[in-house]
Amino acid sequence: MKTVILAAGKGTRMGEHTQNTPKSLIRIGGKPILEHTLLSLPHPINEALIVVNYLSEQIKDYFSYKFGNININYIEQKEFLGTANAVWEAKQFLKNEKFLVLNGDDLYNKNDLEKCLNYELAFGIIKRIPPSDKFIAIDIGRDQNIAGFHKPEPSELKEGILMATGVYVLDDKIFNYEPVKLSNGEYGLPQTILNMAKDYPVKGVIMEKWSQINYPEDIKKAEINFTF
């Protein structure tokens, strides 16, 4: 089984940490973020398609084409056009099979990823107080399936909302849908999955652990809060 790991971005919000280093190679707990990601992959995964762009040679030099039992192939995202575009770049390698999509700059737990893989189509979520009001809340409907998104009210932001974790279990049905273009010109994978969820049930899977590394202060938070 394959996983698509999104590791193309510049990580501009990390400031000097990413001036000469791709974000996925920032070290947390003594290892690059992307190494933690590969270590968290469940047993069925035996191939990683890593989507790269910014300082991609550093990633290739560090991991080469094998990590433990995981074969690695690299896919170049030619332009920074969002998460859906990144997955579409890998389309030719994802025919007639289920696959896992992960952010290459977040920290995940193997047990959570195994839970997601129990379903044919899944969307990893977690209840958190978001760091800003720009985050979108995930709506869960019948049978715990993804039903939509909404902009949360101030009261919801204080209590916590269901947030997307960047974990998706998909198959090639997703490529039958036009990638959704966002206001910033990028193409969003969660928004495209929502369109698919109108036709096929996509299970919302509650995850227990997830660390998003967006700003320099998130590095220390992850080292304190995340169990490696």
From TrEMBL:
Domain Nucleotidyl transferase: start-end pairs: 2-178
Keywords: Nucleotidyltransferase, Transferase
Gene Ontology MF, one: nucleotidyltransferase activity
CDD domains in the record: NTP_transferase (cd04181)
Gene3D superfamilies associated with the record: Spore Coat Polysaccharide Biosynthesis Protein SpsA, Chain A
InterPro entries assigned to the protein according to its UniProt record, in alphabetical order: GlmU-like (IPR050065), NTP_transferase_dom (IPR005835), Nucleotide-diphossugar_trans (IPR029044)
One Pfam family it belongs to: NTP_transferase
Protein's name according to its UniProt entry: Nucleotidyl transferase domain-containing protein
Organism name: Candidatus Yanofskybacteria bacterium RIFCSPHIGHO2_01_FULL_41_27
